[in-house]
Amino acid sequence: MIIDIHGHYTTAPKALEDWRARQIAGLTDPSQAPKASDLSISDDALIESIETNQLAKMRERGLDLTVFSPRASFMAHHIGDFQTSATWAAICNELCHRVARLFPDHFIGAAMLPQSPGVDPKTCLPELEKCVTEYGVVAINLNPDPSGGHWTSPPLSDRSWYPIYEAMVAYDLPAMIHVSTSCNACFHTTGAHYLNADTTAFMQCLTSDLFKDFPTLKFIIPHGGGAVPYHWGRFRGLAQELKKPQLREHLLHNIFFDTCVYHQPGIDLLTTVIPVDNILFASEMIGAVRGIDPETGHAYDDTRRYIDATLNLSDEDRFKVYEGNARRVYPRLDRALKAKGR
Amino acid sequence: MIIDIHGHYTTAPKALEDWRARQIAGLTDPSQAPKASDLSISDDALIESIETNQLAKMRERGLDLTVFSPRASFMAHHIGDFQTSATWAAICNELCHRVARLFPDHFIGAAMLPQSPGVDPKTCLPELEKCVTEYGVVAINLNPDPSGGHWTSPPLSDRSWYPIYEAMVAYDLPAMIHVSTSCNACFHTTGAHYLNADTTAFMQCLTSDLFKDFPTLKFIIPHGGGAVPYHWGRFRGLAQELKKPQLREHLLHNIFFDTCVYHQPGIDLLTTVIPVDNILFASEMIGAVRGIDPETGHAYDDTRRYIDATLNLSDEDRFKVYEGNARRVYPRLDRALKAKGR
């Protein structure tokens, strides 16, 4: 089985975007503010948006199952206040849940959280709990910078995040550390902010002792770990300077990297320097990079081709990257699959 | 000849740091503010600080010449106002100039600028001009984020930066795009902020048409280009989405990467995906990562070993990386060398 642990609902029917536009307009003109119940999207519309997009490509590429979460760039936690985010997160999570129910063999949910800049992360717990107990999500997406590129929250090692971690541990949920749209003109969202956040989050973990407090906490750093694997020697050396244990001991029981790296040399590097037990297959399809690579004739984000082609992995390694590691790092996913005899 | 284009004066005598501490104290208590002339460092002290550190390692590693600039993390442009930075930059640039005069065969200067958050970059021109005409610097270090991790300046494509670029073009000076200390708790300085800035600067260039306005402008993105080479497919794909020319045409006449990547697989990747004409040897020694890699028994920042060992470069390629490209991208360096028959 091939499990893609990183897919977002980037192709939701336009009614969703329209509702969000009204919600944002309502922040300055409350007469325009919509109710959650004003949004109505039929099952048929959901089915079409998936069948012609993600599912079509999954079939083309031979991918079986996607861990599916709301569109990352649309989370936009910087907009409005907690209530704005709470309503928006509830809507987006419910849509992903419906997709997972409509396509139970191919999609399983991961939840976005109703984060808001300056608001205590523990306010996210009711939504998180609902998504676990009612929707059966197997992971959450945690935004280390709800300000959208101004980085006004404390690092992930700060105790204000601990209620989230306690819930993650209690529910056996990993978190993908994933920012949203940048509203800082310095940072292009998918070309700079995403990758920077990945590197930043890794370094926040490296300088802290977070995983001493939470030995079973699990973070997935997406986009191949940002700059981390390319600079693995730098990070090993920095850990040494900082008198931390070696990275394998210090971080690799808890941190995992996905394979959203859109060319063969990048995947070759990732699979050279990062232990295979810490690499989980993903493509972030349909996402930031949708074109065909003229150098290969294939989609940039068809990451399965790079995993299949790399000389660094044995068949057993590929099984881990495609399926085994996901089942280990996402225990609720494993249980959901086993309950269906998969 | 082996030219290291990225060395900082990280080992200056402690009197420099003490003077800076007094300058910072003077911001809140003007009675403590020192005069520039209060700093006195003898030639002997400079010589010792270099001979026992950078020059010793250059000899060990067989490096001939370093492009030498003030300590990057100490630029700290976020401290004080323009006058604070102006006095500090003048002191630091003069020290590097003295090092270059004391060791003319081994060091040649690059200037830091007296940038200050929210202050028009053109205020840096007098210091820049002095460093070129009086000190003979061959490059500048340009900080894309003088706020120190808050990213409050406009992107490098903004017209407010143009006076700097006009001077660079007029003087045949390349700029290394290099941030300083992070005062944002989210970003570790050398583990996150430096690499993030590299990626950010590259993407600012990618999304803009800066090099249409300045076809001969040259930027060096240090630290191996941040996350860029590892994600080269992503950036090629993003350029395509944004209807920009292919990256070689769009950016690689103007953007160059150094080799400050502290392990073999990183250098192998860099030399696989980036054309050899765009790679310049550097180690940033003595810098962020000073230890011995237990996996190799050699210093992490002994980057010559990786360049020598990589299978991706021919002898001709190595000449370009070690010397030829530096002479082309730093025309004033080439002229200075030729004037000495080198």
UniProtKB/TrEMBL annotation, chains A, B:
Keyword Cell inner membrane tagged: no
Family annotation (SUPFAM superfamilies): Metallo-dependent hydrolases
Coiled-coil region(s): none
GO molecular function: carboxy-lyase activity; hydrolase activity
Superkingdom of origin: Bacteria
Domain Amidohydrolase-related: 3-331
Listed GO CC annotations: cytoplasm
GO-annotated biological processes: secondary metabolic process
Alphabetical UniProt keywords: Hydrolase, Lyase
InterPro entries membership: ACMSD (IPR032465), Amidohydro-rel (IPR006680), Metal_Hydrolase (IPR032466)
Protein name: Amidohydrolase
